[in-house]
Amino acid sequence: MTTSGSPRMTHARAPGKLNVFLKVGALLDDGYHDLATAYQAVSLYEDVRAYPADDFSVAFGGSIDTSGLATDGSNLAIKAARLLARVADFRGGVRLEIDKNVPIAGGMGGGSADAAATLVACDALWGTELGREELLSLASQLGADVPFAFTGGTAIGTGRGDQLSPALAKGQFHWVLALADFGMSTPGVYSELDRHRERHAQDIFPAEVQPHVDMAVLQALRAGDPVMLASVLHNDLQAPALHLEPGLSSIIELGEENGALAGMISGSGPTVAFLAADLDSALELQVALSAARLKVLRATGPVHGARLIAD
Ligand code: C5P
């Protein structure tokens, strides 16, 4: 395949995510854990623009400080582009420009969204036409959350979190996100959970038992009922994240005192996600948390997965 006739630029957008329910099962031989999670894609987006180039490069911009991000081959977007090029036998490269709006290392899958949008943008730029199923299988080779950034909406994830089945969801949920001024390492938080389980042998998740998403979570999503969903939000990574960063507890309390239906650590943290009853309470909560000098964003979900944007 050559670059002749390819577009001058393609633009794809993929969303960040929240895990409204996350149960962590046994530690597997490959270092990953068995999971059962309910994902919701939310309206914070990563925008990837892909330009023809001879080699592979990435540059970042957008609403957040991206100065600490790697731009070499260790970056997940570059890995995504290289993987697609290899599989599609494409001989050129790509220059990626990514506008980031999902908090970095915040537990909301921003890097995964970069990778998903990169697959979509490069597929269109290079005319590889691999098709949805094959792109999805490449997504799962890139990371546990990448397939969900690709599909979006609301979905149940099992296995490493990459085996997806769509979940019915009605209406729109209103989220308020309190951002930390530090990042947390996902492997670090999982290791803390393992250490905790070793210390308290009774908590060890039996390898033969598969974790599952509670029926009540599926019912709340299907009903589009925030009060119901707030009562069943759950994250097994919350306790280890709070153990590593105890200061996050007071942020959860502050939100719950200011009208949030419930607050929880998002994924492996440190972003704290609050579920609000409606837009008005989300706005009030945003004001209250901002007054406490927190950096706050608002988002709604569910939203679409990775897709091309016509500029
Ligand atoms: O796949 P991803 O790169 O997002 O995963 C980052 C790390 O999170 C993994 O290396 C692993 O330590 C941990 N993880 C896990 N079990 C999962 C997903 C992630 O232990 N199901």
From TrEMBL:
Q: Where is the active site?
A: K17, D145
Q: Where is the GHMP kinase N-terminal domain?
A: 75-153
Q: What is its EC number?
A: 2.7.1.148
A GO molecular-function descriptor: ATP binding
Q: Which residues form the GHMP kinase C-terminal domain?
A: 218-291
Its domain of life reads Bacteria
Q: List, in alphabetical order, the GO biological process terms annotated in this UniProt record.
A: isopentenyl diphosphate biosynthetic process, methylerythritol 4-phosphate pathway; terpenoid biosynthetic process
Q: Mind telling me which Gene3D superfamilies this protein's record contains? A: 3.30.230.10, GHMP kinase, C-terminal domain
- Is ATP-binding tagged as a keyword? yes
Pathway membership: Isoprenoid biosynthesis; isopentenyl diphosphate biosynthesis via DXP pathway; isopentenyl diphosphate from 1-deoxy-D-xylulose 5-phosphate: step 3/6
Task: Give the main EC class.
Answer: transferase
Keyword ATP-binding attached: yes
- Kindly state which reaction or reactions the protein catalyses: 4-CDP-2-C-methyl-D-erythritol + ATP = 4-CDP-2-C-methyl-D-erythritol 2-phosphate + ADP + H(+)
Q: Which InterPro entries match?
A: GHMP_kinase_C_dom (IPR013750), GHMP_kinase_C_sf (IPR036554), GHMP_kinase_N_dom (IPR006204), IspE (IPR004424), Ribosomal_Su5_D2-typ_SF (IPR020568), Ribsml_uS5_D2-typ_fold_subgr (IPR014721)
Instruction: Could you list this entry's UniProt keywords, alphabetically sorted.
Output: ATP-binding, Isoprene biosynthesis, Kinase, Nucleotide-binding, Transferase
Annotated residues that bind ATP are located at: P103, I104, A105, G106, G107, M108, G109, G110, G111, S112, A113
| Pfam families cross-referenced by the UniProt entry | GHMP_kinases_C (PF08544), GHMP_kinases_N (PF00288)
Query: What functional role does this protein have?
Result: Catalyzes the phosphorylation of the position 2 hydroxy group of 4-diphosphocytidyl-2C-methyl-D-erythritol.
Quote the NCBIfam families the UniProt record gives: ispE, PRK03188.1
Q: Which family does it belong to?
A: Belongs to the GHMP kinase family. IspE subfamily.
Please give the name of this protein.
4-diphosphocytidyl-2-C-methyl-D-erythritol kinase
